[in-house]
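S.,

Sequence below, as promised.
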Amino acid sequence: MRLTALLTCLASLALAGCGHVADIPVEAASGPAPQIVEPAETLLPTFDVAPATGWPDGAAPVPARGLAVTPFATGLDHPRWLHVLPNGDVLVAESAAPPQPELGKGIKGFFMKLFMKKAGSAVPSANRITLLRDTDDDGVADMRTPFITGLNSPFGMALVGSDLYVANTDAVLRFRYETGATTIAGAGETIATLPAGPYNQHWTRGLAVSPDNTKLYVAIGSASNIGECGLEQEVGRAAIREIDLRTGAERLFASGLRNPVGMAFEPESDRLWTAVNERDELGPDVPPDYMTAVEDGGFYGWPYSYWGDQVDERVEPQRPDLVARALIPDYALGPHTASLGLAFTDPSKPAPLGLQGAFIGQHGSWNRKPPSGYKVVFVLFAEGRPSGPVYDILTGFLSADGEAYGRPVGVALDGRGGLLVADDVGNTVWRVSDEEMPGRAVQ
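The prediction came back faster than expected:
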């Protein structure tokens, strides 16, 4: 009884927000040369969990000047990821974490379950992909139908010819797709099994297809924060895997990426980029989440180091040999922003702002005070590289009282001049577009 009372007391303190307050602004830990401060470990990690409330009637996120936002589809069930088909149909993965019995054990597990519930993440998974269609091209989906059901925490989607690939948390499936189809029946063919199991903290599996349509890339996050569940649980994880679609051969493409989520090929250079969530519980200012071009065979530090050779002394045993070859990411996106979604503009198609660059969906922090993320941002690119600071595109997901009306996850360009944003707390897909005309500069 005393333990229960103690846990209840500690939970009340943690849910109210506790720990070290940030010393530097998010902007200082953003860009190609972020400020990397010393870790600030405390007895209890910094907690500042925004309670998920959903959107009040008539409320919506706030777009940057010159942009407009409208609901493309509402009343969804935890929409996480998006894929736009060539005919304009939009696939949305309605998904949440699978059961993770081992991660719920112990005092830390007790707190994490409370935080997930408060943040709106501890919901049953709908385990389906829904098709949304805008038949009259007014920027609002007027048709909605279950497209694939009976999945297992689905996330990434990719179309190659008539083959639609879907990444469950434990496998990549292939379905036969016909243009205009509104449903696909059957279980699909398993082309690759993926590590999941009882330790599966980072359960999402992103997909990307090479520009020549011959390779499929799968992003697989770590089972834990820094390998604390045992490094044997991390085999094949914290990595990007390459699958040859002609032969079925698989290989490790890159490793040491704690939680790579969004992946996309930058159109000018044809290089694969990914958005990565870095580790927690080193204080509110470090390390930054990031996006980076992914080097074939590259190692990015996890769990032994971050931002190159910044050693994480909590990890045992240490591996100075691996730290010595850890690559520095290309572009920091701020500490604990939970940068998930990644989408590049296509120079041949209209898009908001009419500029070349990357849109990033930032799901929002729990390990930072004040909060970071909870918005969609944009980074200009030139000659295949980031060429400017982080610009806010869609904000207002947090109330003045710190409640989460919504949390952006996946982002996708619809090819008609709009940016689609999956909001898993608001159960909405938002559409961002220019108010009047394309080509307006970032304000």
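Confidence is low (pLDDT under 50) at residues 1-16, 437-441.

Coffee later?
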